[in-house]
Amino acid sequence: MILDLDIGNTLSKWRLKDAESSEIRSRGAVWTREEWRPGADIPDLDVVEAVRISSVARAAVLDETVTLLRRQVRHVFVAHSQPEALGVVNGYEEPGRLGVDRWMGALAGYQLAGGCCAVDCGSAITIDFVLPGGVHLGGFIIPGLRLMKESLKLGTRNVAIDPESEADALLEPGRRTVDAVNHGIYMAAVSAINRIYSEVCDQQGISLPMLLTGGDARVVSRGVQVPHAVWPDMVYGGLEASFPLTFAERAGKMSGAPRVPEPVSLEKIRAGLAFSMLL
Ligand SMILES: Nc1ncnc2c1ncn2[C@@H]1O[C@H](COP(=O)(O)OP(=O)(O)O)[C@@H](O)[C@H]1O
Ligand SMILES: CC(C)(COP(=O)(O)O)[C@@H](O)C(=O)NCCC(=O)O
Ligand SMILES: [K+]
């Protein structure tokens, strides 16, 4: 069994993948700031022969996790942002400083779709661009939905946006604090994603497929007008591509990869931008 770990600022997500059948056998998540303790929702390490890790948490969290895992698991692979990998050239001036989850997303997106816009809606929302040919342009970072909400300190943090809400309902002006805040942060996030995508495609003269991941991907997806696919396992896809262990992975297959969305024409993107400028 292969254990894939995606340690974010809020949640540490894991999945167990059967190395023979490529099936995902189980999944879970624990709060990143809490210790891994028996009885918590953690995988059974007895069945694990290899671990692959992407972590953006404090160095101490990664160190502790690796120390704990090395005691029981033979192969432990830790991903790092590199200047270049798998045909993608990291756009950061200091490539090692790009969050490794973003790097994993860029690698997975490129392997799946070629040029792409990879959006990760977690504690932060990150929007990264890779051109066909593999040039990573860099990206954008904004606070995620929960951070935006908490920063207002209006006591609304425990009332999350209902993931089933229609985007139209979230467009309405709120008539109580919790709705005003939820609708506001939602609009801030989806407008930024729509606009940033259009601006960069316009600048680069190319229309790119968009891929969405992270804890808030489903709800954000409802408000993103750009054609896109939700890929919950995108960071894991980067781990599979970086450390291929199975036959399928060596052949470039990533578990749970969606169909590549067909982007709209550049003309349409530019017309949309021109229209929004007129208003
Ligand atoms: N059950 C949940 N528990 C915690 N956060 C959730 C849950 N469902 C959705 N979220 C949202 O997902 C975000 C965490 O997403 P995730 O992609 O795991 O973030 P990170 O990678 O930064 O840890 C939270 O900030 C919150 O807005
Ligand atoms: C931007 C991030 C905080 C996003 O982390 P997440 O929301 O997935 O927990 C993370 O990718 C990070 O710490 N990046 C380092 C800074 C950078 O990418 O420029
Ligand atoms: K993120």
Give the tally of β-strands.
Answer: 12
Shape: globular
Report the C-alpha radius of gyration, rounded. Answer: 19 Å
The biggest beta sheet is recorded as: 5 strands, mixed
Which ligands appear in the coordinates?
Answer: adenosine-5'-diphosphate, ligand PAZ, potassium ion
Overall mean pLDDT stands at 95
Q: Give the low-confidence spans.
A: none
Strands in their spatial order, largest beta sheet: 3-2-1-4-5
Strand fraction equals 15-25%
SSE order, as H and E?
Answer: EEEEHEEEHEEEHHHEHEHHH
Stated plainly, the CATH topology of the largest domain is called Nucleotidyltransferase, domain 5
Number of helices: 9
Percentage of residues in helical conformation: 25-40%
What is the element layout, followed by pairings?
Elements: E1 2-7, E2 11-17, E3 24-31, E4 50-55, H1 59-70, E5 75-78, E6 84-85, E7 88-89, H2 100-113, E8 116-121, E9 124-130, E10 136-143, H3 145-152, H4 167-170, H5 177-204, E11 210-213, H6 217-223, E12 228-230, H7 234-242, H8 247-250, H9 266-278
Parallel strand pairs: 1-4, 4-5, 8-11, 11-12
Antiparallel strand pairs: 1-2, 2-3, 6-7, 8-9, 9-10
Helix pairs in contact: 2-7, 3-5, 5-9
The structure holds adenosine-5'-diphosphate (ADP), the ligand CC(C)(COP(=O)(O)O)[C@@H](O)C(=O)NCCC(=O)O and potassium ion.
Active site: 101 (proton acceptor)
Family: Belongs to the type III pantothenate kinase family.
Keywords: ATP-binding, Coenzyme A biosynthesis, Cytoplasm, Kinase, Metal-binding, Nucleotide-binding, Potassium, Transferase
